Amino acid sequence: MLPRVADSLSFLYVETVRIVQDDTGICAQVETPLGVERVYLPTASLSCVLLGPGTSITQPALATFARHGTTLVCVGAGGVRSYAGITPAQLTTDWLEHQARAWADPDERLRVAVRMYEHRFSAVPPGTTLAQLRGLEGQRVKALYKMLATKHGIARFRRAYDPADWDDQDPVNLALSAANAALYGIVHSAIMAMGCAPGLGFIHSGSQMAFVYDIADLYKAKSTIPLAFSLAGSMKPERDARLHLREEFRLIRLMPSIVSDIQRMIAPEAAGDPVPPAQATDIVQLWDPELGALPGGVNYGDDSAADVPW
Length: 310
Fold this sequence. Notes:
disordered N terminus; magnesium; 9 helices; CATH 3.100.10.20; endonuclease; Four Helix Bundle (Hemerythrin (Met), subunit A); four-stranded mixed sheet; CRISPR-assoc_Cas1_N; alpha/beta; 310 residues; flat
């Protein structure tokens, strides 16, 4: 039995290695003057793997990651990243259907977006509009930047992300970009493991990562932003951010929080239902507007409903 997504390790970062599948499992190997050194990876219990610069991976290794539902995040130089989300083929569509119904209904989509903003505040006055919530969120982040800058002795901070001028950015911005990249990967893996669609966002829109950004924003103020400011004097802010973040995610058990928060955001009435594990065989049902879900793999040619004149 594979671990549930809520029990998985958060992420693993690798760079300048070749990831291969051998007779024992998946390993990261590197050639040294003493020969080839190998480190085996706990594939079945990893939520996502961040593939840094200089990393290559073989097709058999990719197939193994796919079977285990591990998300791969390619993190290039300058913080440029891409995602390879893997959804187990036998995963049920329960939570995808909850998400799609909420997203397709404008009124329900608004309610989900409001819930996402309200999650970040201790209290919100009744009747606050979405535009007002956006303004409150912007003020909250600016105040957080100012408070953390004062705490860590930074005269002035401005959030900047410029891949074309990556190496000239200050340590806080470098650490924040690296930490956010890891957070996006973890959230993406949780979304895929639940069978949801990363492109159907409720606050963000127009990107295949819209829902990832929606959920990741729930945690930045408590995790990646304070961590980045604490690394203002680091000589290797990106590396230190990943190391500290992984330990923090382990301590606060982030993966179970992500799963339960996604459930509470898109379908509070169903929150707490377990995420169905991938089944050994495909389970396909037929949809009927009056009868609901009908068993698949059944010949309905003998039903009276099929007796229609031609």
